[in-house]
Amino acid sequence: MNILETKQLYHDFSGLEVLFGVYLQVAEGERHAIIGPNGAGKTTLFNLITGTYRPSRGQVFFKGRNITGFQPHQLSRIGVGRSFQITSTFTRLTTFQNIRLAVLAKRGIHFNLFRYVDRMHDITRETEAVLERINLTAERDRPASALSYGKHRALEISLALATDPELVLLDEFAAGMSRDETHYAVELIRRLTVGKTVLIIEHDMDVVFSLADRITVLHRGQILATGSPAEIRQNQAVKDAYLGDLEI
């Protein structure tokens, strides 16, 4: 069963076409990567799926429901979460406070004054459990701005997952990470996304081919190929357009 589909998706910026009839299918429970050269339309596709942009033409379906034009907050409520290429944490808040906001959002609770939230012991327990799962308990009281780059990205990924989405979209999560940080982030995603569907944009081919069950290659705004990692490795059109002789 497909949890996500885009049908004949087109998008342009002031008349400049970026996507041309993209028909993407993502099966429930799979880790699906979208790869392609810069300018292929990957982030634009993510922005259409997550409601940042509205398509010029075409439709987006989540679990068979037409969600074309839904706003990001509406998508969060029905089970779609996203992390961004640029970190989107609240940098002046502590690691604990960032996670707590996500836990509150998952429960549909909105508070402006932290002193009221501090009395909600079940929220505190759930927040601390999340911190333990992502190995950031030691960073509990540090401002997000004081975290190392790798830990900051781990926090941002966790915020996307803290609302317990069925589908999570990760945009260039390994960008700028060291090898050790990337390994940590990949293992974190493996642990936190068991039973979930994951859609990934990523340039690091080691990450893509180690993590993805299926891969879609975008080229000049169109889908060039979709298949298993082994099929994509052997696809001559993909090699010619993007991978070349890259050893993966």
Structural commentary:
There is one protein chain. This protein is α/β, with parallel strands linked by helices and 248 residues long. It is 38% helix and 25% strand. The chain has a single domain, classed as P-loop containing nucleotide triphosphate hydrolases (Rossmann fold, 3-Layer(aba) Sandwich), CATH 3.40.50. Helix 3 packs across helix 5 and helix 6 runs parallel beside helix 7. The model has no long low-confidence stretch (mean pLDDT 86).
List keywords for this structure.
single chain; 248 residues; alpha/beta; Rossmann fold; 6-stranded mixed beta sheet; 4-stranded antiparallel beta sheet; 10 helices; 10 strands; 25% strand; globular
Helix content: 25-40%
The CATH top-level class label = Alpha Beta
Task: Record the strand order, biggest sheet.
Answer: 6-7-8-3-9-10
How would you sum up the major sheet? 6 strands, mixed
Total DSSP helices: 10
Shape: globular
Please sum up the structure shown:
This protein has 248 residues and is α/β, with parallel strands linked by helices. The chain has helices at residues 42-49, 72-78, 95-106, 114-117, 121-133, 149-162, 179-192, 205-211, 229-234, 236-243, and strands at residues 2-13, 16-27, 31-35, 57-62, 65-66, 80-83, 167-171, 197-201, 214-219, 222-227.
